[in-house]
Fold:
Amino acid sequence: MLRKTQMTLTQMNTKEKGTVVEINGGGGMARRLEAMGIRPGQLITKMSAMPMRGPVTIKVNGSRLAIGFGMADKIWVELDNS
Structure:
């Protein structure tokens, strides 16, 4: 049985795709991410990351978004190996 790899958004490589499986944050952060379309079950693509714990750029539902490193580090993703 093939086991899928889970990691935080900050650990993903650029251009990797994955499905959000968990958000390890409070209710406020979860609501803010939900408003941006980032919720468990959502497919996202990491587009870029700035050095020195800078913002992470992702693609969600055809839109590009930049989120802070701390927030990105609390988003767990299951990599899409296809």
